[in-house]
Structures are given as structure tokens and as C-alpha cells.
Amino acid sequence: MPCESGPCDNSAEYRAEANRATRAACDMRTILRRANLEHMLTVETRKWIAKHDREDAVRIAAENAEGIRERTKRTALDKLTLEERRVLGL
Q1: Within the chain, where are the H helices?
Q2: Would you tell me the crossing angle of helices 43-66 and 68-78 to the nearest 10 degrees?
Q3: Contacts for 77 with CB less than 8 Å, ≥ 6 apart
Q4: CA dist., res. 59 & res. 90, Å (int)
Q5: What angle separates helix 12-34 from helix 43-66, to the nearest 10 degrees?
Q6: In the chain, what's the furthest Cα-to-Cα distance?
Q7: Opening angle at CA 37, ends 35 and 42, nearest 5
Q8: What φ, ψ does residue 19 adopt, rounded to 5°?
């Protein structure tokens, strides 16, 4: 499931924009982490990443407990043809 910004009391429009920015930051974190470049970020940014990682772990645990991730995975797999599954080794 996609990342979201933390709780806030602002408008739905503000919340949607905050969620888009959070997902973009999370994507960039993933890219930097894969390239082993996280150490080049500012302390403030690294603190945000650490906090976000903790929040993600809690969210993912809840999604797993509720079966959300498994249903999402099953829905995606059901869209694949037999040949696509073979190519992907599934």
C-alpha cells in the first residue's frame, strides 16, 4: 500500500498533497538506499527517513494482520497470464 503523511487536521486537499509528497520522498529514499547514498543526506532528512521507516513498519504490520497486503498481491497476480507468471518465476 502507498505511503501516507502522518495524521493532520487539515483539509482533504492539503492531506492529498501531503500524501503525494510523502510517497515521492519515500520513493527517493528507496532509490538513494539502493545506491547506498543515504549517508549524503542532511541529518534532518535522515531523521525523517528513520521516523518514516518506523511508521511504515507499523503500517505494514497492520496491513499484514488485516490481510490487506495478501489480497492486494492476489489481485495483482490474478491479472497475470500463465506465460507472464512463468517469465516472472511465479
Answers
A1: 12-34, 43-66, 68-78, 82-88
A2: 80
A3: 85, 90
A4: 26
A5: 100
A6: 48
A7: 155
A8: -65, -40
Q: CA 16, CA 22: separation in Å to the nearest integer? A: 10
| Cβ-contact 11, 1 below 8 angstroms | no
User: Tens of pLDDT along the chain (90 residues)?
Assistant: 556 666 666 678 888 888 888 899 999 999 999 999 999 999 999 999 999 999 989 988 988 888 888 888 899 999 999 999 999 888
**Residue linked to cell 532509490:** 31
Instruction: Copy the grid coordinates of residue 23.
Output: 510517497
Supply the pLDDT for residue 15: 81
Determine the residue type at 69: R
**pTM more than 0.70:** no
